[in-house]
Amino acid sequence: MTRQVSLSDFPYWIDFQQISFFVSVFTILFAVVGWNILGRLEYHFRIFTRLFGSKFRGCYVIALYIFCFSFYRNLAFNWAINDQPKFEITNIYLDYFLYFISLSLNIGGIVFVFTSSWALGILGTYNGDYFRILMEERITQFPFSILSNPMYVGSTMLFFGRAIWQTSPAGILLSIWVSLIYRLGTLFEEPFTAYIYSQAETKRKKKQEQSEISENTELQKDFQEWTIEEVVNWLENKGFGQYKETFLSNHVNGSVAFRLDLNMLKIDLGINSLGHRFQILDLIQKEQDLLKQELERLKGNKWISERKAIEEMAMKILDEKVLSNIRRKLELAEMKILGKRRNTRTGKNTNKTFWVFKKD
């Protein structure tokens, strides 16, 4: 039978001789520490990806382990508080009040846990980041719109709700232990998650740069490595099919075509018409200009994509308030620089301007 205690029994609110209490303490600790250790081993060494032949299978196996161990942790918590003394509530109004608090905590905890799991999905909930299964964008829907770690908050609420329902001092103490462990867990998890996404963004940028370099090379090959037949077809499409045979007999490929001049066209290729010679050279020059324009466009797209990538990475790591503060400081710095340049040109004293920005 469960022993009842009152305020006067303070030293005996918690029975530290019960082994179930320390089992609960350990399972609460290892639940968070364990999945962080397994996640980092996977990220650095890909142990489970190699073991199960796929990062997705590995992630599902770890998800099953985390789910089962969390279930055992909850059972250990229930066993612990069932073995511990409970407060004897004699005031009916206090009893109703505690019932209302417990019910509210349990409902709120269930809502936060299930809605965050729904938003993240199985892979996002259970260490998908450590398996390099990354979210495409930052989740901003409920409950992430109001909490940064709704899963941990909801789980903590469920522990407190159960402890208050049972009026268990040991349950309250274990629930505080849960909240502390979750808090410590976030101090390790959040920086490492930011590191994972920054590394992924760096690799994506490198891959994009390599793709652009490859695209530039292929673009140059399209022009520089035309075959004789391609040059002849191009010439015919431009309305100079009468010179097809002379280009063929002189083996004019793309590389040769870009080296032609007026004299070569007349002496070597027998094109006597000055107008045709100029027109053919103009067409060749246009092809060269198109190449340069395309290369410039690709270069411009590269810088645009890099800037957007940095903004996207920042959105994943930082919250909106921090980003707004950074933007404000950048705007002030830009205004300060522009004001300094303007006053330098006019020869005016800039001390007052600098003082205003320093004050801000």
Output the keywords.
360 residues; 76% helix; elongated; 2 strands; mainly alpha; 13 helices; disordered C terminus; 3 domains; DNA polymerase, domain 1; two-stranded parallel ribbon
Global morphology = elongated
Number of helices: 13
* Ends distance: 66 Å
**Element-level helix/strand string:** EHHHEHHHHHHHHHH
Low-confidence stretches: 344-360
Please describe the biggest sheet, giving its number of strands, its sense, and whether it closes into a barrel.
2 strands, parallel
* DSSP summary, beta strand count: 2
| Chain-averaged pLDDT | 83
Number of folding domains?
Answer: 3
Please tell me how large the radius of gyration is: 35 Å
- Secondary-structure content class: mainly alpha
Please list the strands of the largest sheet in the order they lie side by side.
Answer: 1-2
Question: Secondary-structure blueprint of this entry?
Answer:
Blueprint lengths: L3 E2 L13 H27 L1 H6 L2 H28 L3 E2 L4 H34 L24 H16 L3 H56 L3 H10 L6 H6 L4 H4 L4 H7 L5 H44 L2 H27 L4 H9 L1
Parallel strand pairs: 1-2
Report on the structure:
The protein is mostly helical. It has three domains: 12-204, no CATH class; 225-317, Transcription Factor, Ets-1 (DNA polymerase, domain 1, Orthogonal Bundle), CATH 1.10.150; 319-360. The protein contains 13 helices and two strands. The chain has helices at residues 19-45, 47-52, 55-82, 92-125, 150-165, 169-224, 228-237, 244-249, 254-257, 262-268, 274-317, 320-346, 351-359; strands at 4-5, 86-87. It has a two-stranded parallel sheet. Helix 1 runs parallel beside helix 6 and helix 3 (55-82) runs antiparallel to helix 6. It is elongated, with a radius of gyration of 35 Å. Mean pLDDT is 83; it is low at 344-360.
